[in-house]
Design a protein that fits this description.
3-stranded antiparallel sheet; mainly alpha; two-stranded antiparallel sheet; Terpenoid_cyclase/PrenylTrfase; disordered N terminus; Methylaspartate ammonia-lyase
Length: 407
């Protein structure tokens, strides 16, 4: 009986040979993720999952987060749930992403928004997040959430491609292609790859003219995957174009954030952990020199117990620390993997989700409004879907950019 129970626990996330203790960590994070999303997707054919839950000391979430399911977080949750073997829950969220590509309240070009209202999705356009503003006596929305970030579109495509390969459902493949086709048609920036997307309220949104290294990594990963499945030359061309920006951003031992709105390279003093990891994690043919960025991250972004988001090193960014654990798994440094995963166990909350930070708040040096230069984008210590999904990916050894487990 005990053997049967252990085998049942291992379905979907065991099988890391010679790694004593790795399986229980994977089970811990997988079970936490599945428990946290169960109530929001149970019985729903299509549903978005709220990105954040109440912190211990909170009585309510801020208005801008109370109903918000960020597409990036939900896409990660789809991939992580597949890695855990829970394809049913993954499909519920994936169906919501698919629905969003097919019908929108204002646009018919195949874009997906940065966020949607958490909960079941009906047959019409998925609702966007919002709240009643008592002071202004109106329904309020966030212009960044209503907008469309190129990287988020690519992550939605990666989630749908993951589901297509897990289920064989051709609709997911079709919708992933539709998303990348939108990127091609709407965000191309020539030698600077693909620009940032669109920002603002419907219907007159602002086109973002800067390019993000991170976004172009995401676009390249989704387009390579599509090319592998469809052999459509357009997607190979997209991959090459996205890599123009990524290659330009590499500065001997680290990556810049991308370009400014005027197409000049970003300030070298602005650092971000994910930008140092994702370019070489995302492709097996990445230049060997790109892995120097991991050493750069260790020298400039590491803190006690993990990694910070940026170079001010003011605390542990849980999501990024999980990303680093997966990066170390790719390089074969399993001692570092175990150290980081062990530290992440302490971040898991009663809900099953991991907190976004260990300190009350964490700076990023970035702006909430992508048209602004005010560094007001902060992470707070509250349970976070995206951080939990990355912990699952690191513990299971699942590379979200390729849909394959790390050998």
């Amino acid at each position: 009986m005990r053997l049967v129970a252990l085998l049942a626990v291992c379905v979907g996330f065991c099988g890391l040979p010679g790694r004593a203790g790795a399986e229980p960590t994977a089970a811990t994070f997988c079970n936490g993720l599945k428990s946290a999303v169960a109530s929001e997707v149970s019985g729903a054919e299509a549903a978005f999952v709220r990105s954040y839950q109440l912190a211990t000391e909170e009585s309510k979430l801020p208005d801008g987060l109370s109903t918000t399911a960020f597409v990036y977080d939900d896409a990660l949750a789809v991939i992580a749930l597949v890695a855990c073997g829970d394809v049913t829950a993954a499909r519920s969220i994936g169906n919501a992403l698919s629905r969003a590509t097919q019908v929108d309240r204002s646009f018919s070009d195949g874009r997906i928004r940065n966020a949607y209202r958490a909960g079941p999705v009906g047959g019409g356009p998925p609702n966007l997040p919002g709240w009643w503003d008592n002071h202004a006596q109106l329904w309020a929305e966030d212009p960044a959430q209503d907008g469309t970030s190129t990287g988020n579109v690519a992550w939605a495509a990666l989630a749908l491609l993951t589901l297509h390969e897990a289920t064989g459902d051709a609709q997911y493949l079709h919708d992933a292609g539709r998303l990348v086709d939108w990127i091609i048609a709407s965000t191309s920036c020539g030698d600077n790859g693909f620009c940032g997307g669109y920002h603002g309220y419907d219907p007159d949104q602002i086109r973002l003219t800067w390019s993000s290294t991170e976004h172009n990594v995401d676009v390249g990963a989704a387009s390579r995957w599509l090319y592998r499945l469809t052999h459509d030359q357009r997607y190979a061309d997209v991959d090459r174009q996205s890599q123009l920006l990524v290659g330009k951003a590499f500065q001997n031992d680290h990556f810049l954030l991308g370009t400014k709105p005027d197409a000049s390279l970003a300030d070298d003093r602005l650092l971000a952990l994910d930008v140092q990891l994702w370019p070489w994690m995302a492709r097996t043919d990445a230049p060997a020199a790109w892995r120097r960025a991991l050493g750069f991250a260790e020298a400039h972004l590491a803190v006690d117990g993990g990694f910070d988001f940026n170079g001010d090193r003011d605390g542990v960014w849980v999501e990024g620390t999980a990303q680093a654990a997966l990066a170390y798994r790719i390089t074969g440094d399993f001692r570092a993997v175990d150290r980081l995963l062990g530290s992440l166990v302490s971040d898991q909350t009663a809900s099953g989700l991991l907190n976004a930070t260990r300190k009350p708040q964490l700076t990023t040096g970035l702006s909430i409004d992508p048209t602004s230069s005010v560094p007001d984008f902060l992470y707070f210590r509250r349970p976070h879907l995206g951080a939990t999904a990355w912990a699952v990916l690191a513990a299971t050894g699942w590379n979200p950019f390729t849909g394959q487990k790390v050998n």
